[in-house]
UniProtKB/TrEMBL annotation:
<comment type="similarity">
    <text>Belongs to the Gfo/Idh/MocA family.</text>
</comment>
<dbReference type="Pfam" id="PF01408">
    <property type="entry name" value="GFO_IDH_MocA"/>
</dbReference>
<feature type="domain" description="Gfo/Idh/MocA-like oxidoreductase C-terminal">
    <location>
        <begin position="155"/>
        <end position="431"/>
    </location>
</feature>
<feature type="region of interest" description="Disordered">
    <location>
        <begin position="425"/>
        <end position="446"/>
    </location>
</feature>
<dbReference type="InterPro" id="IPR036291">
    <property type="entry name" value="NAD(P)-bd_dom_sf"/>
</dbReference>
<dbReference type="InterPro" id="IPR000683">
    <property type="entry name" value="Gfo/Idh/MocA-like_OxRdtase_N"/>
</dbReference>
<dbReference type="InterPro" id="IPR051450">
    <property type="entry name" value="Gfo/Idh/MocA_Oxidoreductases"/>
</dbReference>
<dbReference type="InterPro" id="IPR004104">
    <property type="entry name" value="Gfo/Idh/MocA-like_OxRdtase_C"/>
</dbReference>
<dbReference type="Pfam" id="PF02894">
    <property type="entry name" value="GFO_IDH_MocA_C"/>
</dbReference>
<feature type="domain" description="Gfo/Idh/MocA-like oxidoreductase N-terminal">
    <location>
        <begin position="21"/>
        <end position="140"/>
    </location>
</feature>
<dbReference type="GO" id="GO:0000166">
    <property type="term" value="F:nucleotide binding"/>
</dbReference>
<protein>
    <submittedName>
        <fullName>Oxidoreductase family protein</fullName>
    </submittedName>
</protein>
<feature type="compositionally biased region" description="Polar residues">
    <location>
        <begin position="432"/>
        <end position="446"/>
    </location>
</feature>
Amino acid sequence: MTIIDTEPTRHGTPLRRPLTLAVAGAGARGTAYADLAARRPDSCTVVAVAEPRERARRSFAERHRIDPAKVFDSWRDLAEAPRIADAVVVALLDEQHVEAALAFIERGYDLLLEKPMATTEEGCRRISEAAELAGVAVQICHVMRHTTYTRALKAELARDAIGEIISVEHLEPVGYYHFAHSFVRGNWRRQDETSSVLLTKSCHDLDWLNHVISRAPRRVASFGSLTHFRPENRPPGAADRCLDCAVESSCPFSAERLYRTGLREGGTKQYFANVITGGVLTEDAVTEALATGPYGRCVYACDNDVADHQVVSIEYDGGVTASFTLSAFTPLENRHTKIFGTRGQLTGDGRFLEIYDFRTERRTVIDTSRDGSAAAEGHAGGDQALMDDFIDALTAGRPDRITAHLQDTLDGHRLVFAAEHSRREGGVVEVRTQSPANQARTQPGG
């Protein structure tokens, strides 16, 4: 086979040709990012894939018309081959991020790295230091930074719509059936196999709070536990699997109802049905998955151990405070935020912003959606905006389009790890932050 090394992208200099992109991990996120990149054929071409699952690998390669010589069944094979792309999307299992990122960085690839950056602080630090030493660009997929909603919110804060920020309340309503799918029955149910739910689900949110507040976090305390999805809460008469359960019809967490509804409704429930059947959306495929796979288990008879609710209290430089709540026990809906300022209050739900002005006592509502779509669709446009920003940063010589300096991302992950330490061990934990941007923002007038 013939594989030709490419020249590294020159940050700050236009590329003058389409960016070439390889994808390591053709699961839901890797496939989504590749499809979004493919919407811009004049700017980006998907040229390689590494994926261990034969069906997913073949489907991905056919969809993007990839040369068979550039289709790999292991990310290691892709990393060890002569360099065949400018950048790599790393959308592997969380625990593989460090080894894979370091290997691709060593080969000179720029990276679009799915969150979390790594499952340990040491792993995050190693990636950050390696990227800086190699001079490659690394964008962490904190899609919430890239939405039109967040950009509009930041613009309102910048124009002093509510004065100086004093405190923030932020809620992530995970959704009862989403939590049951991913964090009770699914891949992110155990800390020893992945990490805490605060990292795997909500590192987005703590990064977003840092981004919005624009000050360095200094102290954190957190509380939370696995309270409900435990064997002692199993209803009388419940079976180990929903297919065999006499009380299944009265259980809000019924796997049978969730995945069979997904066959008909579309949206998130259909996405989950697609996950458990490997893309075969039929009644027989769902029945087989419920009978034999992990997603058919009773939520009270799984091996899960991650917290099903958690609160995080943060103190930032200058005395600004923030509280974050993660809960499994909600409808599946978008985040809710209230920002309390010296001149007013800002309330947001991922699409609409409401500004209440103390002086005029007027409320102004801003619809940040460009097309009237729901906030949950494509992370409110954040997925597409993230990919657009990454492509533009590398092809147009616009490094400013990568919104988070790696040190900012590292600081956000450090906040997560400190909060988890507080939750497990108790007490208030000091947060070590080193981002030059954070330090600059905490100076008087910053």
